[in-house]
Design brief:
The chain has 116 residues and is an alpha/beta fold. It contains 6 helices and 5 strands, in the order ααβαβαβαββα.
């Protein structure tokens, strides 16, 4: 099963309210999906975050940002990361708190430190 298929299954489980509560509570950060180039950039970071014990995921499809933010909100994911052209160029990530709405730019190492 490829990653995209697994993520779509997760979306269906979530839509049907069949996602186990233990899974809902574990993801700390959701990367917003802006497209293929941005997804590849996000997946590199996700790999390093996971290697450091930080539960993270990428929204499975390129969709309107409101839908992706709503998904994070429903799943009680406390942070989202925005990584578009500007962030890729600067080798940075914009971290947004879903609780306060505050956002700041971080390098990957700074993100790892933030979540540890």
């Amino acid at each position: 099963m490829c990653i995209r298929d697994r993520d779509r299954i997760y979306l269906v489980l979530e839509e049907l309210n069949l996602f186990p509560e233990t899974v809902l509570a574990t993801t700390k950060v959701l990367f917003i999906n802006f497209g293929d180039r941005e997804s590849l950039y996000a997946l590199q970071a996700i790999s390093k975050l996971r290697a450091n014990g930080i539960a993270s995921e990428l929204y499975p499809d390129q969709a309107k940002m409101g839908k992706q933010m709503g998904y994070a909100d429903k799943r009680n994911i406390p942070f989202v990361i925005l990584a578009g052209d500007k962030e890729i160029e600067n080798q940075s990530y914009t971290l947004k708190s879903m609780v306060s709405g505050d956002q700041s730019n971080y390098t990957l190492d700074q993100l790892i430190s933030f979540f540890k």
